[in-house]
Amino acid sequence: MSSSRIFIINLILLFLISSVNAIAGESCSNKKNIWGNIKEIANPMLLMSPAVTAIVGSQCNLIFKFNKKKITSCYTSSLAITKNSGLNMNLKGELGYFTKELKEMMSDPEIGQFLKDLSNALKNDKASQLWRWTLNHPLFKGKPNKKEEAIKTLAVLFSGNGSEIERYSKDFINSNGPHLKDAYDELWNGIKRDKVQPYPPPIKSKDTSIYHFYAISYLTQKIIKKGTPKDIAVVVAGSLNQVYEQYTGDLVRLARWDSRVNENTYEDIFTGYAGALFATHDSPFSRGIDKASFINQVKFNGGGVALKGLLKNNFSEH
Questions:
Q1: pTM for this structure?
Q2: Where are the domains of the chain?
Q3: Residues 6+ positions from 267 with CB-CB distance below 8 Å
């Protein structure tokens, strides 16, 4: 089956799923609008899967033109990731935790000590470089796979916003929940006051939503471990972050591909791709990724064009 046919099928699936759930929603309540009902009764990832796959697929078609094997792998990975990644997006545009890993970490005394140490270091201005501080912590120092474990830990612990952290601090109040909230609050304040750089150098950002980097980096690692080539993993994970930034929050807008963005959105999109690249290289800039030029490419030419240049600079096969 050609990539263009797969693309069309995904759009049809999105329409059919939306229509079926709209009818169900109509019967649930006459007081609420049809899209409000969908948001309440529909499985968010079931609704999003075709749309995400279609949008990521358009990136794949542009980047891997004439390479059917890579295009197919790209589609397959994007389908799998929306169903089994552990990173959940709902129709309100909220990015959820890696729930399984979070539960494990919340009962781990070593993670509890890490959070307490991080909170104290941030209070005393001794963790101005979050990534460097994390790598040097006893939890990771000396481990052969410390980069992978550090990315995973930061991704899982800090992939939520303030309200989500508040909720989990109560859910795990008898374990690491309070330590997580203390560390998050200190980290958030440090970033806002420009006293903490949460990303590996030379990335600089005051964005307190660090999941755009670490969650996408961890997601890239997970995709690679499934046997997906590194370049395709970067495309799929980074594109998922882009879809989240540009289209989620409103199923109607997503179905119409009505992208609504601002300058902060472009920053978050860039950070996501940098995070994906960081999972495959020693540095997110190891072989070239210029923030200003990348954002301009996304802004004026689309994510696919920007990604094509990024892959060319960072993977020899391109």
A1: 0.78
A2: 3-84+212-314, 101-198
A3: 205, 207, 295
